[in-house]
Structures are given as structure tokens and as C-alpha cells.
Model the fold of this input.
Amino acid sequence: MRSQNLIRLSGAVALCALSLGAAHAATGGEPAAVVQVDVAPCLAAAAADDMDKAGSACASVIDNEKTAKADLVKALIARGALYARHDQVDRAIADDSRALQLDPTLADLFNARGELWLKKGDKPKAVQDFGAALKIDPNHEKARANHKAMARELERIGAQMAVAGKPSFNCRSAARAVEKAICANRELADLDREIFASNARVIREASNPAEAKALQREQDEFIARRNAGFGRPGYDLKKAMQERLQRINGVDGY
Done:
């Protein structure tokens, strides 16, 4: 029984040897070589800002299943940066996102994608990416500056939203018809608040007390005209308020 098993085993080994020999003969007697994907042309074309060459060179790397992970990340970053330089923001974000999925430790890339989100006007995503970059590298200067600026911007937007539709005065104590009309209209309420804030600014920036007093007197006179004119035939409250705001801020809006 044992001898029969040995005979069968010997036959299998011989058959395997014959198969290998045939394979070697078919390939010239040498084992098949492993094809290496070269990322250098992609990186060079992207660095040279050559969209045409980079398009094909990088695609041959990115779309190849045999590309090593490290080279794939390099190609995605290079092509993403090229897209960003040519204002192809969505394509750049797509490449950066894929690279970050492969390697989520790239602080520079999180910051770069955050700046792209900012170009698209998506401030929450921008702040999120800047924060991710800082989590990886707390000393990342660009990410810190970007995050700080965006945090302030979002805070300012939040503050504006909190007072949106609210005038400069308390509507609960509004007694005049014109004040009630302003409280009842979101656009008029915003205008009133802007007029109040702009007037406070120009008074604060006045060169001397006399000028500040004159500016406040002008505002008081506008309020008096507004109160007296509201409800009369032909009086346009919105137009009057817009003209007052423009007069305070000047032709250039400030």
C-alpha cells in the first residue's frame, strides 16, 4: 500500500516538473517578470504644469490595479494639485479625497482640500479639513491660520443670523406706527439695524467731538423726518432708509 502511494506521489512530482518545464520553454526559459508602474512621468508632467501630458501619464498610474499604494497616493496628489492650479476644483477635491482615503495622515493635503472647499463656498467642510490637519499636526501654520480665520468668519455669520430680521430697537416697546412697520418687515428691520451700526461707526471714527456731535444730529434729524413722513401719501419708507444708509456709508459703501 505504501509503495503504491509513493508511486502515485512520484508520478505527480514528475508531471509537475514537466509542466514547469513547458512553461519555462514557452517563455524562453525565464520566469515571467513583474511589470512595474512608473509614477515619474506623472509627477514630472504635473510639476511642469502640463495638463495634456499629465492627463495621460497620471491616468496610466491611477487607473492601473498594479500601482503600489504609495505611488498611487503620489499620483493623486500631483494630479489634484494640477487641477487646483487650473481651477478645476471638483476634480481636485475628488483626487485629494481619494488620496486621503488611502492615507489619512496627510496634514498638508487636508489643508489643501480645505482651501478647495473654501473656493466652493463650503465653509463648514473647509473648517472641518483645517481642523483635521491641525489634529494631525498641531504646529501646521497654514492650517492654523486658515482654521482661525474661518472660525471667526463662521462666528460672524452666526452672530448676523442671530440678529437677522431684528431692528436696532426693542420691538416690544415700539409705540410709533413706523416702528411697528419696521418690526413687521424683515428687510426694513435689517435696514434699521445697518443704519444704526453704520452711524455708530462713523461717530466712533470722527476726528473730533464736534464732528461726532454733528453726525449724531444728522441721524436724529433723519429719525424725525422718518417718523413724521411715514403714512403720508408718496412717502417710501424703504427708499428713505436705503438712501440714509448710502449717505452714511458713502458712495463706495463704507
Q: What stands out?
A: Residues 11 and 17 are 10 Å apart (CA to CA). The chain is about 75% helix and 0% strand.
